[in-house]
Amino acid sequence: MRAIRLSRSYLKPTTGVAVMLVVFLFSELVSWLASYPINLLKMHYVGGVLPYLWLVLRSLLIPEAMTALIVVWLLNQAHRWFGIEQVESNWRSILGYKLIFLPVLALSFIFFNPVTETVRFLLEGYPRYSLSTFWNVYLAGTFSWPVYIRYLALVLIVGYALLTISLLGDLHRQTSLSPTR
């Protein structure tokens, strides 16, 4: 096989959210293993296991699902913008294919941050919404280098995982459909 035809069958919203969830669960596990007493204090501070899970759901999982959805959309759009329909099946071409998406993933913060932070504000701020809090804490306050760097690591992991999963899925489908020698 000389080239892998890209169907992007795994570049879907559900796959994006699933990959984001796996990354989140892994980081949460590492956090609990590394600082169990601190996390236990946090859980007791918010009122127990169920309030802690609700806090994680509304402050992290649901807003970051928006991040994953927008990253998936941007990756699909980049395939269309750059006219990428296939990748040669050698390491150099695959590396080049993935490097094309580095600027897309690096600039994705501009697109997803306002959406993610708006959803986070709506979930965390209920029922006391304040426009000044929304602007200063959730929007303008998050457009900073430390927040960008934290998100960049997450987006690169999720984005490249999605590209790899999709590429491997396309490769598997094409090799399983091709006649055996």
UniProtKB/TrEMBL annotation:
Q: Give TM regions.
A: 12-32, 52-75, 95-112, 148-168
UniProt keywords (A-Z) are: Membrane, Transmembrane, Transmembrane helix
Q: Keyword Transmembrane: yes or no? A: yes
Q: The organism sits in which domain of life?
A: Bacteria
Protein name per UniProt: DUF4328 domain-containing protein
Output the lineage of the source organism: Bacteria, Pseudomonadati, Bacteroidota, Cytophagia, Cytophagales
